[in-house]
Amino acid sequence: MSNQQIAVLGLGETGLSCVNFLLKQTKQVTVFDTRQTPPGEDKLDSSVKLIKGELNGELLAKFDLIVASPGIALATPALQFALARGCEIIGDIELFARELKKPAYAHAKLVTISGSNGKSTVTSLLGEMADTAKVKVAVGGNIGIPALELLSPEIDLYILELSSFQLETTCSLNADIATILNVSEDHMDRYDSYAHYTAAKHRIYEQCKMVLYNRDDPLTYPKNPGVNKTSFGFDQRAYGLLTNAQLQICLAKEGSALLAVQHLKLSGKHNWMNALAALALGEAVGLSETAMLTTLQEYAGLSHRCEFVAEINHVRWINDSKATNIGATQAALLGLSETIPGKVHVILGGDGKGADFSELAAVLKEIEGLIVCFGADRQKIAAQNKRALLVENLDQAVAKIFTTAQAGDLVILSPACASLDMYKNFMQRGDHFKNLVKALPARIN
Q: pLDDT by residue (tens digit) across 249-285?
């Protein structure tokens, strides 16, 4: 096996993790990258040959194994040529899966998570739950650390977020439980149909011992009726919701209340579903229910994704700066008013990249609090609701809402726009918002 010739397609973090992993196994590795200055080139071992430029199918066909970056579609002509010549093409997740079958990792459990939205939140939340439960856990894949860099005989639980791109080149995961949280149209520049995209997601169900699906999204239902399965959703079955005697909406298991949603720092109905999914996944791999519920009351969310910032004068402030398009803002705002005792106030604006903001009109109609618009496209957004207010910047938006919001209200920055008109990126915009909010108590009197 040490004489096996392996081609790694694409550098960057994932490509480098593949190269370093293979070198440790004394493989002979050649790297291909279409870019003239690929990221990570300066970190490449001097023994590894790097070939830049357009991929050549005849050259690739000479290798025993091709490890392709998730960013390179299997439909690429050079890869199709190599496949036709009998080459095996896999990705870093398949390398991980094969390594995990070795005796040194026999004790470890594996959770795999996919979906069009929410998978990063569920992955990181489950990781926090495991940490609270004092389980030696490693979290990565499509989020954070490349999967191959997580491998260690000391780890008891691996939690991987997986994209449809990664699943295309993965066939032998044997996860203890796998989930598709939801499916909505995405990556149509990569797939020739919505059905093709959905099928790529469903590869995760072919490689697990148990399936967790979303009862409210038929596209997540497993196609094999005999598979061991559980589910989550808005009704009371399995993991779901119920209203208790105090008229509080609660996360529930088999009709028994676990935690009132008012105790969650995560906001919105979509995050109630994320919380239920994490609880179901955690139960499947033996995490303490007490530890999981404790984590849910402390978990503030990923940075800039419906992230809890602070509660000031009983008003919750949420940073959703990652909402750089209309769809993300719609998801954050849909039904949000129903989840709190007071009003929702929203801050929108920035560079809309030519978007049709009329798609926001319906969800803005639900907002009873202030609708404040700033940035380059503030007037276009404000045109969607007659109550919308125009301000020059985020400072003015926060100040305006602070003087108006009452106890029980919620304020969310969910721009529906890119940030480049005023900020370096959405992270800088979100950090500015958080700093403004955290300075608010000094203004009280």
A: 999 999 999 999 999 998 889 899 999 999 999 999 9
- Report the candidate in 132, 418, 411, 430 with the shortest Cα–Cα distance to residue 267: 411
Active-site option among 187, 209, 380, 400: 187
Return the closest-CA partner of residue 323 out of 272, 370, 365, 360. Answer: 360
pLDDT of residue 187: 66
CA 136 – CA 127 distance, rounded (Å): 10
Report the DSSP beta bridge partners of residue 318. 308, 412
Q: Name the H helices within 33-76.
A: 57-60
pLDDT digits (tens, 9 = 90+) for 38-75: 999 999 999 999 999 999 999 999 999 999 999 898 99
Query: What is the band of 93 on the pLDDT scale with cuts at 50, 70, 90?
Result: very high
Locate 429 and state its tokens.
């915009």
Q: Of residues 27, 109, 117, 119, which has the active-site annotation?
A: 119
pTM of the model: 0.88
pLDDT for the residue numbered 411: 98
CATH number, domain containing residue 349: 3.90.190.20
363, amino acid identity: V
User: Reduced to 3 states, what is the DSSP secondary structure of residue 29?
Assistant: strand
* 89/80 Cα distance (integer angstroms): 10
CA–CA dist 152, 18 (Å, integer): 15
Residues 391-429 have pLDDT tens digits of: 999 999 999 999 999 999 999 999 999 999 999 999 999
Spatial neighbors of 112 by CB under 8 A, at least 6 apart, are 160, 162, 173, 175, 177, 178, 179, 204, 207, 208
Choose the catalytic residue: 27, 109, 117, 142. Answer: 142
Dihedral of CA 219/222/225/230: which sign? negative
142 is an active site residue: yes
Q: Is residue 119 annotated as part of the catalytic site, yes or no?
A: yes
221 within domain boundaries: yes
Q: How many residues does the chain have?
A: 445
Q: Does a structural domain hold residue 69?
A: yes
> What's the mean per-residue pLDDT of the chain?
94
Query: Does residue 239 sit in the same domain as residue 101?
Result: yes
Distance CA 72, CA 52 (A): 15
In this structure, how many other beta carbons lie within 10 angstroms of the beta carbon of residue 41? 16
Q: At residue 27, what are phi and psi to the nearest 5 degrees?
A: -80, 155
442 assigned to some structural domain? no
Q: How many domains does the chain have?
A: 3
